[in-house]
Structures are given as structure tokens and as C-alpha cells.
Amino acid sequence: QVQLVESGGGLVQAGGSLRLSCVVSGRTFSLYTINWFRQAPGKEREFVATITWNVGITNYADSVKGRFTIARDIAKNTVYLQMNSLKPEDAGVYYCNANNGNNNWGQGTQVTVSS
């Protein structure tokens, strides 16, 4: 069992930055990857970024490459999503997802980007 708690969302102007955090608890030794997804109103949940828990290999959706950075601090059991140069289309609820053979989800954190 893995529990995830996201934080760091909020309201920001276009061009601004936010850093999201995802604190992971439970069976962290069994983790494969930690992922960020987002969901805008009326749209499907979409992949944003991923990082392997043990080695730290990252990958990003094309829409956020060069603007977002995912990182992990194993000592703090925390994964971060640094979001720079935010655009209105980046707005939505951001969810942390942990894959250990099962899909584990956090409750989400709202990101609003004003134009």
C-alpha cells in the first residue's frame, strides 16, 4: 500500500512558476515510477512527467518539455514537479501517481493559470 499527498497548487499568472510536491508513504521500496498527470475540466486525464524511483530516469509529455522538471528526494520520500513558463493550457488538477504493480493516486492539487 502506497499513500500519496500532493501540495503546491495555486493561482499563477501566465509565464509564472509553481512547484508541486508529492509526499509518498507506505511501501516505497516497491515503487517503480512516480508520475504526474493532470486533468482539465471536460478533458481526459493526461500524462505530464515520470521519474523512476530508484534511478531517477525522467520523461515528459511533449507539451511540457523544456518547461517542467520532475525530481525526487528519496530521503524525504518526495517527488517534485517544477513548472516554469506556465501557460493557461497547463491549468487543471494535477495528480501524483505511484506505480508498484498497482496504480496508486493522490487526491490532486489545483493549478490555475490566468492569462
Description:
The chain has 115 residues and is mainly beta. 0% of the residues lie in helices and 57% in strands. The chain has no helices and 11 strands. A hairpin with a 5-residue loop joins strand 5 and strand 6. It starts with a strand and ends with a strand. The model has no long low-confidence stretch (mean pLDDT 95).
Keywords:
4-stranded antiparallel β-sheet, 7-stranded mixed β-sheet, 57% strand, mainly beta
Write the layout of secondary structure elements.
Elements: E1 2-7, E2 10-13, E3 18-26, E4 33-39, E5 46-52, E6 58-60, E7 68-73, E8 78-83, E9 92-99, E10 103-105, E11 109-114
Parallel strand pairs: 2-11
Antiparallel strand pairs: 1-3, 3-8, 4-5, 4-9, 5-6, 7-8, 9-10, 9-11
